Sequence to fold (127 residues):
Amino acid sequence: MPVGAVISAVWGLAVLAVLLVVMARAVHSGGLERNSLMGVRTRATTHCDECWRVGHRAAQPGLRRAGWVAAVAAVVGVVLAVVGSGRSWGEVVTLTAFGAGYAGVVAVLLHVTVVAGRAARAVHPRR
Fold:
């Protein structure tokens, strides 16, 4: 597998991991106020500041989990790229690991979005 492809995949997963963990910490400390750039942005969570706070508080464990999924996928991908280098199965297994890592992050984030939306709608049920 080309080194550039491995670096790109690892870099993307690493950036995702850092952003998700930083966002989870900001939510935990109460420092993530309603904004237009970062956060779980659903119709329910953006309705008001209280909906934003409640939705993100509910989403915080999942955000941290998504960050860990990205970090573990990056490490596993690198290990497989090194171990599989020059072997017939190496490229396919490495690409599968990176793909599964990205798919895992997306799956966790979709769940986080549902959890945050439900929590925010509990504050204002019509949203």
Observations:
- The CA atoms of residues 80 and 93 lie 7 Å apart.
- The radius of gyration is 17 Å.
- Residues 49-83 form the longest helix (35 residues).
- Residues 3-123 form one domain.
